[in-house]
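Hello,

Our lab assistant flagged a job as stuck in the queue for most of the afternoon. It eventually completed. Since we weren't sure the result was trustworthy after the delay, we are filing this so someone can double-check. Below is the sequence as submitted and the structure that was eventually returned. Let us know if re-running is recommended.
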Amino acid sequence: MGIYTVSQLNEYIRQVLTQDPQLGQLWVRGEISNLTKHSSGHYYFTLKDKGAQISCVSFRMTNRTLKFEPESSMKVLVFGTVDVYTVRGQYQLRVLDMRPDGIGELYKAYEQLRNRLQEEGLFDVSHKKKIPRFPGRVGVVTSPTGAAIHDILHVLKRRFPVDVLLSPAIVQGDNSAQSVVRSIEYLNRAGVDVIIVGRGGGSLEDLWSFNEETVARAIFDSGVPIISAVGHETDYTIADFVADVRAPTPSAAAEMAVPERSELKKHVLSLSSRMEQAAIHFISEKYHHLDYLYSRIEPERFAEILRRDMQRVDELSSRMEFGLRKIIESKAASLSGLAGRLNAISPLNTLERGYSIALRSRDNSIVGRIGDVSPDEYLDVRVIDGTVECKVTGVKPENRNIGEKRC
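-- returned structure --
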């Protein structure tokens, strides 16, 4: 027999415990006490019953997958493996999974999830999608062997025959939540117009799949409107709160999904009758209006109105012609007066009276005074019948200060 250090002894005990197949993985029932939720995300607590207790540790990776929030005094089923914390020489249960134990604990977990999802807004009416009035294809998520599918098919056939696509799902027990999620996702890709998700009645444990967070989020994320039909009329699940419409039973869900054929037929006949009556009334009104117009404008009366209007056109035409002529005469007289005034000041009239006009040859400007010219400058003297070309040899002023030119 050798001598062990404390660490060696604890390690040996750990190996013995962890290698025992009966202690490898097991379920343990008990009540949570001394619960500590560390900032690291790990949970440390004691699991006890009336006669004993055991230390437990649940690491962060495990806690992320839990479907409820553990609380002190909560009765739970813990799945894990026996381990030894060698630093203290303390054996403990390392938690791999944990579930509420009993109806009371299940209801606590239900309330926790419902309150959290409600705070996130998953139940808000603003997110609810409208169920189409005349769906062409109805998708169903339920067990293929349960009573729910038979009830749904029977109601749909009676009310409004429509294409039905069943996506079979496990609706109770292990892996049921994942099965329901996969079916919802498949029907979203399958081109259905509305989805019925549900199953028949059962206990809280039986319906628990529809209280899982993964199912709730799959319903919320669905692009297709979903009718939840889980259990009986008094059963409420998280799926009911998230769905776009909650039906008390699968049969009621089928009634909500499609219209009643006989009621629809009555509605169509009623609309047809109303349209026919409206058309008859419209035509009758137009006939009365035509009769009224005919009484107001008979053929002879129409001819009289036409003759009157033709005469009126002739009268207006004559008045317009007379007015235009007066306008033209007035403008012609005005133009003649302006021409006379222009002619009176015309230089040509001056030339006709024997006068001449002297222009400087270089720039054709008028010579008005003796100061306008220089000796030896050439001038053009304009007379009535032509131009006399001259050269200035000198200038001679007169007494009236009006210069006289000599060429």
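-- support follow-up --
The delay was a queue issue, not a problem with the job. The result is valid. The radius of gyration is 56 Å. The CA atoms of residues 396 and 404 lie 5 Å apart.
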